[in-house]
Amino acid sequence: MKVVGEAILSSAVGLLFDKLGSSELLKFARQENVFAELENWRNELLLIDEVLDDAEEKQVTRKSVEKWLRDLRDLAYDMEDVLDEFATEMLRRKLMAERPQVYTTSKVQNLISPISTFLSSFITLGGVNFNVEMGSKINEISRRLDDISTRQAKLGLKLELGVGQCGETFASGGRASPWQRPPTTSLINEPVQGRDKDKKDIIDLLLKDEAGEGNFRVLPIVGIGGTGKTTLAQLICQHEAVMKLFDPIAWVCISEERDVAKISKAVLQAVSPNQNIDLMDFNIVQHSLGEILTQKRFLLVLDDVRNINSYEQWNSLQIPLNCGEKGSKIIITTRNANVARSMGAYDRCYNLRPLSDDDCWSVFVRHACEDENIDVRKKLETIHPKVTSCCGGLPLAARVLGGVVRSKLHDHKWEDILNNEIWRLPSQRRDILRVLRLSYYHLPSHLKRCFSYCALFPKDYEFEKKELVLLWMAEGLIHQSEGDELQMEDLGANYFDEMLSRSFFQPSSNNKSNFIMHGLIHDLARDIAKEICFSLKKDEMKNNKLHIISGRTRHASFIRSEKDVLKSFQVLNRTEHLRTFVALPININDQKFYLTTKVFHDLLQKLRHLRVLSLSGYEITELPDWIGDLKLLRYLNLSHTAIKWLPESASCLYNLQALILCNCINLTKLPVNIGKVINLRHLDISGSIQLKEMPSRLGDLINLQTLSKFIVGKHKRSGINELKSLLNLTGKLFISGLHNIVNIRDVKEVNLKGRHNIEELTMEWSSDFEDSRNETNELAVFKLLQPHESLKKLVVACYGGLTFPKWLGDHSFTKIEHLSLKSCKKLTRLPPLGRLPLLKELHIEGMDEITCIGDEFYGEIVKPFPSLESLEFDNMPKWQDWEQREALFPCLRKLTIKKCPELVNLPSQLLSFVKKLHIDECQKLEVNKYNRGLLESCVVNVPSLTWFYIGGTSRLSCLWEAIATSLTALKTLQINQCDELACLGKHGPGLKRLGRLRNLEITSCKVVESLEGQRLPRHLKYLNVEGCPNLKKLPNELGSLTFLRRLRIENCSKLVSFPEASFPPMVRALKVTNCEGLKSLPHRMMNDSCALEYLEIKGCPSLIGFPKGKLPFTLKQLHIQECEKLESLPEGIMQQPSIGSSNTGGLKVLCIWGCSSLKSIPRGEFPSTLEQLSFWKCAQLESIPGKMLQNLTSLRLLNICNCPELVSSTEAFLNSNLKFLAISECQNMKRPLSEWGLYTFTSLTHFMICGPFPDPPWDSKASSLWKLLCWRTVLSSSLLYQTKDCHPRLQGFKSRIVLF
Q: Whole-angstrom Cα distance, residue 861 to residue 839?
């Protein structure tokens, strides 16, 4: 059914009822003598509301009704704009009356923006003192409303019986369903693809006997429409084990039904079809059903359950079902996880995921060409990726699409189906979307509008929960009833969770904190939102493939490009009523993007109805003063920009709810009068490292919930007492500049102890510990900053007191999981942190005066640190002793100790269960007769240790003797800056004992001369030796490492050669870098028995050539760089893949850079598998014979630069498949460009040329050829690159080409 945004319309009208019923607004309307107009609006809308159902049904067949609904929707939006402007002016006047001092100072008066002078010049209009512009808008709205009412009468739209007054339909969300799903049965008529695991998992649950109070259990199958929930349930019902265990097995299709009596009758008839009873008597029905099920282990399937969403309904329905035998089961299929929970689902729902691409393809093929021959099936393979993309894992979509293709197989049109947008074909698209629309239909009206808003995002866009909730808030989509105790953010979170439970959203597979919409759900959102939401795609912006969008569009988004110019947004010229302008993704990384200032002045300045403006990620340094004219703006995101300050006019954005300035590293100040933005709820300035002081009167922002950072200033106007009025703060709070506090009473008034919604707290003093610091004052401040016991994370930095307050480490903080103490340089004792029952991560750093850790740290309890998993000590210069005691750290998994040069001993039980151990720059941790130290007394009995880093010690030999035989589970060993490595091979088998070791890294061991005596474990997979300048020999047993996959040798300047015995046969990657003394490479790598795939030799100036033989055929990439003495390349690079071979080998990348002695290339032809070929700075290279490049059908990149002696024939470059071609500084390549055959380069996307050619591009002889080349380049939607101009005229010519 074709529907004109019925949810958007009904919700919008419902919102208008609320606004027009506001007592404050009506009071202001009376004051301004426009009460009658607003009352008339409300009365007219009530009459229109009563005929909306009838209009939405008739629009399918009557274009005039569809047009009427569209006009009504636009009127509702415009009416809301006017009412919001009216409310904004009311708020402005209220602020002026309450805070006249803010508005009367000359400084502020000069900075007041146009919004602050709104309605400042009044004239008489019909006896009413009102602004001319607003009066005109009210008259225009009234005229349009009269027109809508007149047309309503002419169209014959009728009152919908049962619809109450005052917009009651909006509360229920009820409208006529556009399509009814056909009833289902337990019979299945086709094979089921890709559900074997799901079937097994559910059958296992059915056959399991769980202990419980009731006689039956509920197993819900939850998933989006079209995933095959019903089909899976049918499959399960026919399984032999299920049929044997359960009797009876009954199937009831519930769908729309919510009446318990009717459902009970249907269950009775399914269980016993031949029962002759009075089905009109509910009491008889339930008694009969109970009697029939008595002492029977039944299986009941309730299919497509939608409306059983209250415990009362379910409680009434389940009464007779409890008569069944223990072990009975009820399967329900539903799209809504909340329905499943309402029906007593145990454990968790079985969430049915979409099919894999392969399974989806199989379903498609079965329906598209089940009876066709193999040739037809092969033809279909060409559209395989497109089909799986369209279907998105939904078997229903694959089935429908297969049916469409099936009807086209023999009229030569099927190939065009997927090239068009299949889901835009009315009949096929309707088959899918009408199924999904059922889920949408059952949404409450407030959720329908939120869902349709998500059409703003492009397909596959990942979004965060909080991000979307803030956007919903800004658009006015979250309805907060009078007396509702929940904050808008909490309501929005509830909205989101409801949508998630109904499968409209699903967790992202890439990031657990992100969410995504299924592709077809996204299609549904776009179908519903239609012209209201518009998403401008990146390729459309770059290639000027712009659509003409309607002036009715209210929400627009776009994917930012590296450089966005005004022309990219010309499609938005007609959208003056736009409410949303968002650059995506909203949360951006460190990549830089640029936006022309013309977008501000020629586009954004005209969009006076904006609620949401997000320009995150652009290198914007300032905003224009007119930003304050966007009086309806509620969400402004400038995160990750180069903004330095906000104009003072931003203080007049009275409706602003969210100001996002995170990671604005150049931001130095906020608006002085930001306290006037009284609706601000979220101020995120995290990462704004140059912001040194907060503006005054920040405490006036009493609605503030997010204040990522508060900087205590040196002056009273930005003192900590500004926080006392911010009672709604939630989440994270960072307070810095605590050393500036002078009046302790100000801290007491803040009362963090009463802020139960603050979950993460950071307290920071100055890092400058000069003599002026007052230890007593800082302790008093710390005491009074005691947070609520619900705190989960605490960070304390640069505290200058001599002791910690008693509350730190108190056992009452039962929820704290993360604690960090940094640079508290004057403290001599740690607090009793062992008392914190849920502490999981503890980081202690820069405690200069700590010498001993003992009972005061454990908290004098029997089992301290019961939950601690990660413990880190860093930069503790005087710490010597850690007292031993029993039952320490039972859950510890990671221990890090760095820069503790005086530490001698640690508790022997410390590493009972540790898996990762990091020790760095702890010189005195050694084994001696009194205390055998960390690595003997602890690690010896720790088979759980799998990762070990040891660095910064010259006494490794003292440690290794004790631990060499004990690290039986070790998988990764990293040794850094340890000069005594000879000990590793002493005392028996050495490293060879580490049978599970897979990764060995030896770095920056500058004294080490040889690894020859080391005995490496045979199962080693990765060996990395780096930064050992005196190393001359590698381990002798290198060739016996049959499991080694990657070998990397870097910055070992005295290494001359590899061991002669052998080379690890299974090494896939060999990288040798900056080994200045290396004269030869391993001989054994030059044969086909080697498995080498990647070879890189770089910075080896002593290397003259490769060993005799051929490189293995498995080699795919060869990189040789900065080997000045290398005279020849290995022969194996020219071998071709054998004909008919299934081997995937063959060289793909050949890169030769900076080999100044290389004169020639081995004879033969380059392999046909070659994709990239580069020669750079090969001063003596004389030629690349043209025949070498022939038949390189895979070649995409050819780069020849700074090869002055190179002479090459024309045919060398005749390759129409090339995408990147660069020829530069090759003085001997003198053949005219017109003879190169460049016109054949139909795939070229990047082209660079620099050199003294006889007919340069600006020459008349080559001009036509050059134009043709540039024409082809532009046609391929690519860029034309010139790195160096050989003639002034070329630059101008290039500019014309770019604009072509």
A: 15
Cα(638)–Cα(390) distance, integer angstroms: 35
Domain map of the chain by residue range?
6-172, 196-351, 357-434, 444-532, 1161-1300
Best CATH choice for the domain 196-351 from the list 3.30.700.20, 3.40.50.300, 3.40.50.800, 1.10.10.10: 3.40.50.300
Question: Which has more confidence, 393 or 659?
Answer: 659
Q: Round the average pLDDT of the chain to a whole number and report it.
A: 80
pLDDT of residue 112: 37
User: In this predicted model, which residue has the larger pLDDT, 67 or 1267?
Assistant: 67
Is residue 1150 scored above 70 in pLDDT?
yes
Q: Residue 1191 in 3-state DSSP?
A: coil
Question: How far apart, in Å, are the Cα atoms of 933 and each of 851, 873, 930?
Answer: 17, 17, 9
Tens digits of residue pLDDT in 978-1012: 876 655 655 555 677 788 899 999 999 888 888 87
> pTM above 0.90?
no
Structure tokens at 448: 């329908």
Predicted confidence (pLDDT) at residue 103 exceeds the cutoff of 90: no
Query: What single-letter DSSP state applies at residue 1030?
Result: T
Q: Residue 915 — φ and ψ, nearest 5°?
A: -110, -25
Is the pLDDT at 926 greater than 90, yes or no?
A: no
Give every CB contact of residue 462 below 8 A, 6+ residues apart in sequence: 508, 510, 511, 514, 515, 516, 585
Helix, strand or coil, per DSSP, at residue 249: strand
Say if residues 1172 and 1187 touch (Cβ distance below 8 Å): no
Closest CA to 1245 of 1225, 1212, 1269: 1269
d(CA 952, CA 923): 7
Tell me which of 184-193, 1237-1246, 1259-1268 is least confident: 1259-1268
* Topology agreement, domain 196-351 and domain 444-532: no
Domain 444-532 architecture: Orthogonal Bundle (1.10)
Is the backbone peptide bond immediately before 248 cis, with ω within 30 degrees of 0?
yes
- Residues 365-397 as b/e (b if ≥16 CB within 10 A, e otherwise) read bebbbeeeeeeeeeebeebeeebbebbbbbbbb
